[in-house]
Amino acid sequence: MAFLAGGRAVVLLRGEIQHKDLWFVDLETGAERQLTNLAPEFDVRDFDISQDGREVVIERVQERSNVVLMDLPR
């Protein structure tokens, strides 16, 4: 889970044990929005959000892990 600037929203992982997607939750309104629709074999270990809230870095679980940088939808 990562709070966005100002603490008014949070991005979190939601889904099954071995398959999760990133979700945006507005803490003031309770509105939720799915940010990613990752392939079933894309198993996320961890993530972080840039300070400006425009990019997310995702650590993928696999035999040889890699890091993916993605622009977040507005």
Structural features, described:
It is a single chain. The strands form two sheets. A four-stranded antiparallel β-sheet has the order 1-2-3-4, with no helix packed on it. It is mostly beta strands and 74 residues long. The protein is globular. The model has no long low-confidence stretch (mean pLDDT 86). A hairpin with a 4-residue loop joins strand 6 and strand 7 (66-71). The chain contains no helices and seven strands.
What is this structure, in a nutshell?
The protein is mainly β. The chain contains no helices and 7 strands. It has strands at residues 2-3, 9-16, 19-26, 32-34, 43-49, 55-61, 66-71.
